[in-house]
Amino acid sequence: MPVLVASDLDRTLIYSAAALGLTVPDAEAPRLLCVEVYEGRPLSYLTETAARLLAELAGTAVFVPTTTRTREQYRRISLPGPAPEYAICANGGHLLVDGVSDPAWHARVTARLADECASLAEVRDHLMNTADPLWARKHRVAEDLFAYLVVERDLLPPDWVKELAVWAENRGWTVSLQGRKVYAVPKPLTKSAAVREVARRTGAGLTLAAGDSLLDADLLLAADRGWRPGHGELADSGWTAPTVSALPERGVPAGERILREFLRAARPAR
C-alpha cells in the first residue's frame, strides 16, 4: 500500500529570503536552489540537499503539495523531481489532478461553505471596514473562497488580530497570521479533507504530513504522523499533539529535517 506524504510548502519546505533563518557564518551557509520566480525575481528557495531529498521522496511515496496558495501562485513553483500527480491548493478548495482542478471536488467544497458558514462577502466587508490603511497594504480574495490582508507587521496592532479571530469564530471562520499575511478562512475549507480524498483515491496505507501554521493543524491531526518546524504559528503557541513531532530546527534547515523524517518513516512502511 502506498505512503502518502502531504506537506505544506511556504515556511515548511520552501522559504523566501526573509524566512531562510540562516544563523551560520556566510561562508558556511548551505547552497540554495531557487524554486520560484515572481515578476522576474527569485522568490522561494530550498537547500540543494533538500532538493535531493525531495526528489528521492517522490520516488518513494505519493508526494502531495498541500498549500493555501491559489492555483496561480502554486504553478509558479518548480519543485525538484517529477511533477506531483496530486496537489492541493487554496487550503483544500482545489484538488489538482495532473495540474487540473477536479470540478466535482470543488463543487463539494463550495456547497459545504454555502451551508456551514458566513459568506465571503460578509467577511471581506468586515476586513475592509476594520483594517487600517496605515498597516493594511493589500486586500485580497483568493479563488473566491477566502480573504487575506498583506500587512506591515511592525505596525499591526496585536489586539486587532485577536478581535478578528473572535469575530470570525462566531461566523464559522478562522484567522491565521503568517508572516505579513492575515488570513480569514472558512472552517469547512480544510487541507485535511482534501488529503483524505487523495488517500482514498490512491489507497494509501500511511499518511505523513508537515506544516507550520494554524491552517496546518487539521492536516497534522489527520495524518498518522506529522512534523512541525521550530518556527511559525504552531511553534510560537507551543501547539503539539501525540502524533506530531515538534522539531527544533528553524528556517530552511527545518525543511531538510522534515524531508529526512518523511523518508525515514516512508521507507520502512513501504
Q: What does this entry show, briefly?
A:
It comes from Streptomyces ardesiacus. With 270 residues, this protein is of the alpha/beta class.
Describe the structure.
The protein has about 270 residues and is an alpha/beta fold. The chain is built from 9 helices and 15 strands. The chain has helices spanning about 50-60, 70-75, 105-115, 120-130, 160-170, 190-200, 215-220, 235, 250-270, and strands at about 5, 15, 30-40, 40-45, 60-65, 85-90, 95, 100, 135-140, 145-150, 175-180, 180-185, 205-210, 225-230, 245. The strands form 4 sheets. A 5-stranded parallel sheet has the order 5-1-13-14-15, sandwiched between helices. The protein has a 4-stranded antiparallel sheet with strand order 9-10-12-11. Strands 2-4-3 form a 3-stranded antiparallel sheet. Helix 1 (about 50-60) runs parallel beside helix 9 (about 250-270). It is globular. The mean pLDDT is about 95.
H and E string = EEEEHEHEEEHHEEHEEHEHEHEH
Largest sheet: 5 strands, parallel
In order across it, which strands form the biggest sheet? 5-1-13-14-15
Give the termini separation.
7 Å
Rg calculated over all Cα atoms:
18 Å
Show unreliable segments. none
Query: Taking all residues together, what is the mean pLDDT?
Result: 96
Structural class comes to: alpha/beta
Supply the number of helical segments. 9
Strand portion: 25-35%
What spatial form do the alpha-carbon principal axes imply? globular
Helicity level, as a percent range?
Answer: 25-40%
Number of strands: 15
Organism: Streptomyces ardesiacus
InterPro entries: HAD-like_sf (IPR036412), HAD_sf (IPR023214), TPP-like (IPR024197)
Keywords: Hydrolase
GO molecular function: hydrolase activity
